[in-house]
Amino acid sequence: MTHQHPFKTLLEKEYGYVGVCEICKVYHIAFKNIMFCLNESEFEWFRQLLTEKRMMEAYETPHGKELIHYTPLSNFYLLFSHDEVSELLTLMNEVALTVEARKMLKHVN
User: Fold this and answer.
1) 68 burial via Cβ count (<10 Å: 0-12, 13-18, 19+)
2) pLDDT given at position 17
3) Residues with Cβ < 8 Å from 17, sequence gap 6 or more?
4) What phi-psi label fits residue 16: left (phi over 0), alpha (psi between -120 and 50 degrees) or beta?
5) Are 11 and 90 in contact (CB under 8 A)?
């Protein structure tokens, strides 16, 4: 995947990072072995889904995953442990605060 636009990393942790293309405003959420590329409204929608655990239910696997998240794609699901959902939400919540702060600072000048 080639990306020629200016990319800014907003937050980086040991399990992932979030960055944004400053031209097309697409957020790249890399978490463990998953990468989501979402615009601002999709980012907020997905964050709300995780927060409210909508489209998600208990699903025990022998590999430590306890939750299944249904996606809009037919036959495509995401598996998470409770800790992973918490880590991903922490990552996304911190970025949401950063983005809001950046917006407020833009309007100060």
Assistant:
1) middle
2) 96
3) 9, 11, 28, 30, 91
4) left
5) no
